[in-house]
Automatic annotation (TrEMBL):
InterPro entries linked to this entry: Ig_E-set, MoCF_OxRdtse_dimer, Mopterin_OxRdtase_euk, OxRdtase_Mopterin-bd_dom, OxRdtase_Mopterin-bd_sf
Location of the Oxidoreductase molybdopterin-binding domain: 8-181
Coiled-coil segments on the chain, per record: none
GO process annotations (BP): sulfur compound metabolic process
Xref: Gene3D superfamilies: 2.60.40.650, Oxidoreductase, molybdopterin-binding domain
Cofactor: Mo-molybdopterin
One GO term describing the cellular component: mitochondrion
Matches recorded under Pfam families: Mo-co_dimer, Oxidored_molyb
Keywords, in A-Z order: Metal-binding, Molybdenum, Oxidoreductase
GO molecular function: heme binding; molybdenum ion binding; molybdopterin cofactor binding; sulfite oxidase activity
Protein name in the entry: Oxidoreductase molybdopterin-binding domain-containing protein
Domain Moybdenum cofactor oxidoreductase dimerisation: residue ranges: 193-290
């Protein structure tokens, strides 16, 4: 299981922890861990879930457009910023129902963690929001158990959110407050962000630049994943940079799950020596196929125009990538981040 955290890990006593539910709910409440575990009020819920950081495979992006991740504070992750576990807890919808439901035109739920960070000269708690339509579908969990064991502190104990099918950043760790709000949490970031992860796949073995001795075939294995409740249907690999492709036999794919990855393995034909390029692609059940995209050119140009160095990595950027006014103007023009119908 991948460990991904941008901040110091809070130390919270489970016996004194409680969750505040407030904002546009009919009856604001405080619930302890014992309250949430009371199955007479909240039915227990278990799901196998893949959590993937939206920065997964950033190191490949860095190799093309250096600066975003290798010298800045953002971590230069490879294929490992993803993990799958069986989580147990309760549906947030059941908890909201326990509070009498939403009132006053609430459309989003803001999730706030106990961890803090420093950004744009302010100390903030980590906070994001998810649309109530996601909650209503029982796709937002409050969990305290992971793979049959108590949730580890490093993974957000005593209670974290797990948002099924969304990027990992929405699954807030060390959760202590849920607030019903009219619209999306507008100050969670300084530019538009994605919610559902697109279809993606990766080779985990052999590793990059690994020396492989073979006799006409190379043992290859990896993972394939798609967000939003979609799942990989077909995986193909190539030993010549994508000129010729071989389908991974379906029996070599792990079982399908609505919100989890499929791992795969295959024996890939290879009749050459020297440097070769192994690549993988997959299709999900919506027939979307993964491909690379450019993301950092404009940001790099902004640093160059200002004559600002990327180093030292411990200092915050002295200028915002997008002002709050520009952020609000963008969504006023482009429409909301999430829609109900």
């Amino acid at each position: 299981m991948v460990l991904c955290s941008y901040v110091m890990i809070p130390e919270i006593d489970p016996d004194s922890w409680f969750l505040r539910l407030e904002g546009l709910v009919k009856e604001p409440k405080k619930l302890t861990l014992a309250d949430l575990k009371d199955e007479s009020r909240f039915p227990r819920m278990e799901r196998l879930v893949t959590i993937q950081c939206s920065g997964t495979r950033r190191i490949e992006q860095i190799s093309l457009y250096a600066g975003e991740g290798d010298e800045m504070i953002n971590a230069p992750w490879a294929e490992g910023a993803i993990g799958t576990a069986r989580y147990a807890g309760v549906s947030l919808k059941k908890v909201i129902k326990h509070c009498g439901g939403l009132v006053g035109g609430a459309r989003h739920l803001e999730l706030v963690g106990a961890d803090t960070y420093f950004k744009m000269d302010e100390v903030m708690n980590y906070a994001v929001s998810v649309p109530y339509s996601k909650v209503r579908a029982h796709e937002v969990m409050l969990v305290w158990e992971m793979n049959g064991e108590p949730l580890p502190r490093i993974h957000g104990a005593p209670v974290r959110a797990v948002v099924l099918g969304y990027i990992g950043a929405r699954s807030v760790k060390w959760l202590y407050r849920v607030t019903a709000i009219p619209g999306a949490h507008a100050r969670a970031c300084t530019e538009p962000r994605i919610q559902e992860m697109p279809v993606s796949s990766a080779i985990m073995a052999p590793w990059n630049k690994q020396v492989v001795i073979h006799e006409g075939k190379i043992s290859v294995k990896g993972w394939a994943y798609s967000g939003g409740g979609r799942w990989p249907e077909r995986v193909e690999v190539s030993a010549d940079g994508g000129f010729s492709w071989y389908m991974v036999p379906v029996e070599n794919l792990s079982p399908k799950h609505k919100f989890a990855w499929r791992t795969w393995h295959t024996e890939l034909p290879c009749d050459v020596e020297g440097w070769i390029e192994l690549v993988v692609r997959c299709w999900d059940n919506s027939l979307s196929v993964n491909k690379s995209k450019e993301r950092t050119r404009a940001r790099l140009e902004e640093f160059e125009k200002r004559g600002t160095s990327f180093v030292p990595i411990t200092r915050p950027t002295e200028f915002p990538y997008m002002s709050w006014k520009e952020y609000d103007e963008y969504f006023a023009k482009a429409g909301p981040r999430d829609i109900e119908v």
